[in-house]
Amino acid sequence: MKKRLLVIDDSEMILGLINYCLHTKFELFLCNRISNAQTLLQKGLLVDVIITDLNLPDENGKDFIRKIKSSPIYCHIPTIVISGEKNLQSQSECLNIGANDYISKPFKPNELLLSIIKQLGNLEKEVYVPSLNFEGNDITKTIDFRNTVATFRNISHK
Questions:
Q1: Domain membership flag for residue 108
Q2: DSSP-based three-state secondary structure for 72
Q3: Single pTM value for the model
Q4: Which residues carry this modification: 4-aspartylphosphate (predicted)?
Q5: CATH of the domain at 73
Q6: What domain count does the chain have?
Q7: What does the pLDDT look like over 28-68, one tens digit per residue?
Q8: What is the residue range of 21's domain?
């Protein structure tokens, strides 16, 4: 099964480039507004990586990252910023609020692909998710993503 990417950018050219370069490796959900992406997530879309621009017409990408990272449902999803903002302050702020990587535009498609693969590789680590606490017990469940990432690696090398 292909890994799912949610890509948010208001530039049709950037969305087209990402679609052209990555559609054979990933299942892509392309949005030109954050509100469209939020609608997909609210309807239950599960994605493996979120890629977002910062300067979008309906909301700032930094605010969207803050929402994602503060949500218990979505906080574990790696987030990659692609932006025309090349200053270190913007990059640092994005990484401090929870973005996993920052790529400046213009970018090379392989640069984005390597970042995605790196973020998916980070899922090899075990993630502990607190279970619902009905009787005062602090129980945790372990989710192991190693097999999922191994499957992705097999697909990406074909």
A1: yes
A2: coil
A3: 0.77
A4: 53
A5: 3.40.50.2300
A6: 1
A7: 999 999 999 999 999 999 999 999 999 999 999 999 999 99
A8: 3-125
